[in-house]
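[09:14] KT: can someone run the structure on this one? pasting the chain below
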Amino acid sequence: MRVNLVDGTFELFRCYYGAPKSAGPDGGEVGATKALLRTLLRLLMEDEVAYLAVAFDRVIESFRNDLFDGYKTGDGIEPSLLRQFPIAERAARALGVVTWPMVRYEADDALATAAFLWKDRAERIRLCVPDKDLAQCVDGTRVVLYDRIRKRTYDEDGVREKWGVSPASIPDWLALVGDKADGIPGIPRWGAKSAATLLARYGTISAIPDDPDHWDVKVRGAQTLAANLSSRRGEAELYRTLALLCTDVPLPQDLDDLRWRGADRELLQDLCVAIGDERFLERVPLWQ
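[09:31] RB: done, structure tokens below
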């Protein structure tokens, strides 16, 4: 079986900024939700027997905000996008898709947990998001990243080619380089190339020697990089903790529960009436 794990929050953002705006019967914006329904249905139709789950951030904040004040929050999100969070979650559930709403954890943590739990039982698990955070979950050719926008798949070799490090080193790479989207500042002067060079050799931040004379790979500005890392190792380890995805999120379903058995007619009809998109019902090929 091929299992598709989707970051619903990412998809909702993508739909909001990429699909036409549309007002529902109550005048509220629902264009992203309409587009989300269609993109999920397209994914379900790729396989004769589909296995799919979608994780949403019910709120943007998570336990990571307790660890670091600068971590991302919901500040600045367009109100017309934010109002669609609960509608999008309702839409996925009405479509009959297993839905994981996250509050303490993030959507990525749910996907990472599912990949970890079921990688030995599925023929292939596709993490349907081009997010470098989830590259840490890639395992050989069995657990892969799938960029639906560019229709590009990244297995373990693909991760090394794109980011210069193995999947296991992605949290360390993000800690050094930083991740603006998540509010991780990184270590000054450490760029993608220097971080990749050192981590390709040493694997983890903790294994990088303080003394650059002991580095057996060459990087430009080694003295400055070493000094900045040496004085900020505590910060670097914190940033790594922030970037490291959890693989122990309590998920109530088993792998077999992810098999799509059709949309829930009553829920989907009510949802489509609420967003003014009753024509979508004609597209659904299977009902529970």
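[09:33] KT: thanks! The longest strand covers residues 51-57.
[09:34] RB: yep, looked fine to me
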